[in-house]
Amino acid sequence: MPDHDVLIIGAGFSGLYQLYKLRELGFDAHIVEAGADVGGTWYWNRYPGARCDIESIFYSYSFDPELEQTWDWTERYSAQPEILAYVNHVADKHDLRKDIAFNTRITTLEFHDDDDTWTATTDSGATITARYVIAATGCLSKPLNPTFPGIDDFDGDIYRTWEWPHDGVDLTGKRVGVVGTGSSAVQTITAIAPDVAELTVFQRTPTYAVPAHNRPVAEELAKARTHYDELREASRMAVGGWPCSVDLAPFFEDLDDATAEEALDQRYQKGGLCYQMTFRDMLLLPEANDRAAEFVRARIKDIVTDPATAELLTPRSYPIAAKRMCVDTGYYEVYNRPNVTLVDIKKNPIETFTERGIRVGDTEYEFDVIILATGFDAMTGALESIDIQHGDQTLRDKWSHGPRTYLGLMSAGFPNLFTVTGPQSPSVLSNMMTSIEYHVEWITDVLKYLRDHGLHRIEPEVAAEDNWVNTNNDLADMTLLGEAPSWYMGVNVPGKPRVALPFVGGVEVYKQIGDGIAVSNYHGFEMV
After folding, report:
1. Which of 7, 183, 266, 281 could form a disulfide with 250 if both were Cys (CB 3.0 to 4.6 A apart)?
2. What pLDDT, in 10s, does the model give residues 448-472?
3. Which residues are CB-neighbours of 328 under 8 A, at least 6 positions away?
């Protein structure tokens, strides 16, 4: 007999909810977590200014009505400490830690055909066996750690946003360099600029950022509590997994110039990622995308007083929303400060780190601290960092030309292995909480179905998987997603295949497909 019915990898939002659901149905489920406590991405990413880019009211669990009514979010967009406190509260409330092994990393997974079980080996050499494995490893949990010439020569301190010291770092009065301008960098830069003596930002590609208009959320939360069920259902049936009105007609059909401008202004003033849903065809028609992008470019020019700096900060080489947009709390305003300098490393790349700092071209920038905000090997990195084997096949080899899954839930040839918000599901293009809950509940239902029918092995049919991969790629090819060098396409990782990693069809379409497959006795899956 295996040690457990189900082994769950990861104790973030998805792993905790998966444990809760399986225990509720009497499964023996056990979590293995690399960190020292719960929280997933919110445990690891503690850099200054870290916060969610989905509104707190929607970036929360829906399974516990009492929790919805009693947990008091303080801000429209919650900061990392508040989110981590929420996760800890959930773990305590439902006594989840008793089934979690912390400070334990899975290094290999091997499936055995003779008894249809997985054997997991940990970094300590211990083994754990289970009938099923659920990888709740997160979409942005495998950091990129690029090397720079001379990095070991730097005499100051180097910090990485994804492993920020838990007791914090005092940057007051320091000369600080930040490499990167993605979401983590944008938040860090905005937070530390008022405190440091000098801040130098090394930018390769400028980002599109829209304002958060962050504020206390008590009044909105009180209103939401009167109809939370309706809000949750609206989230499940929304394109992005949270309610953004998309009732405008496609850009060219009904909108004159003035109406389009008014719609963009309304979304911009509201703030947040709903801006990218102003037009239903923003990621389909270049003309619609250009109009939305130009609106944001004009706002950058309005905010940043130095024209040369404003131009450097203005994205022109890729469509808006084809890379992850940032939700900012004063990012562009930072560059009006006299202590902040922007360096274009697209034109003049970093040559080397030095004893005193960073050299770009003929200029050496001297620092006390350098912060690396260099991104993640998104969606596939965490899974491929585990040596997952079935016979002579490894998942890493199978995915060498891009991930191959059925619904982003399983991969043919690897029975009884599930992925929560895996590649080729909506995941990072959605409110992760909505997508997490849907996957957890779908996996829970299929495990119950297997148990109820005396079955103990499941995997996708190759034909069903091939069809899903083709569907995913065909949908992405209809959009502008491939025109940006983004982690959505795996472009940020040297040698990684350039393919669309998330499903672009929307949360509501994906839910209808997933529900239909489940209702038809899990069409496309082989069960034994």
Report:
1. 281
2. 999 999 999 999 999 999 999 999 9
3. 186, 187, 190, 209, 210, 211, 212
